[in-house]
Request: fold
Amino acid sequence: MRTFLLRRLAAVPLTLAGVSILVFLATDVLPGDVGRTVLGREASAEAVALYNRRLGLDDPVWLRYGRWLGHFLTGDWGTSYTLREPVAALVRDRLVASLTLALFAFVLLVPVALGAGLVAGARHDTWLDRVISATGLALGATPEFVTGVVLLVVFSVRLRWFPVSAQAGPGDGPLAVLGHLFLPALSLVLLCTGYVARHVRASTIAVVDGGYVRAARLRGMPPARVLSRHVLRNATVPATSALGVQLQFLLGGLVVVELLFNYPGLGALLLQSAVDRDVPTLQAAAMVLGLAYLTVTLLADIAYRLLDPRVRLAVTA
Reply:
């Protein structure tokens, strides 16, 4: 495990360097003119050119990249062109909001997806297995904006059980905040459940057909105890990687949900800064999101190796 951690940590700087180059080049080729966007259509061409020159936008691309990367590494992320706020504080607040929504959705996803996959695998080739599998495939093929709109219309507009907006008020308590976040989190859970449940189902079928499970049944062990003692852990270990992939998606795929439910997260900030050509905000938000991806991937790999001793033995062999 120590060797694995050292190798992965050594690869992080190289990966972040590649991400920084991609982020900078992608934002550099965005259409539009920063000076014109900030100063407005009524500004003169001379004023726009002077503004761009003050920002260093006329310098060579390699010089602008080096200057931006140095500022980013030292924590000087600049000021938002459009919001006139420090980018570091803006990205930090939006990241906390997105992490809150993503983790809440993940907490809901884990028992739902694991439970559905375990039931489908334990009852494979039955009507219950077919219903769970078909439902998971249908929900996974439905975009989150479709399920989000349906949830809003049914539970917010018609039944009035949940608020329309995911943004809680300043004086709301924890339960009220969770109530605001429930529908956007549920739309993400419905999208991700099928993917994780399929992995759990496949591993459950493999475990159920194993010799030690059959031996436990022959000894007269109750089915519920067989499932909890022998099947549950061995079947859910392979799903760790699938859960890690879905957590990455929850972090990066929040744009539509945040816009639909009027939630001030990092995804909405990314889209708005791209539309406004707010380059400092867009670059910082994209880099922070890339770092979050790397962190989640590393944590998922560590959890997988801790839960499955066969992987540790294979690594040390």
Remarks:
- Residues 313-317 have pLDDT under 50 and may be disordered.
- The first helix runs from residue 2 to 28.
- The chain is about 75% helix and 0% strand.
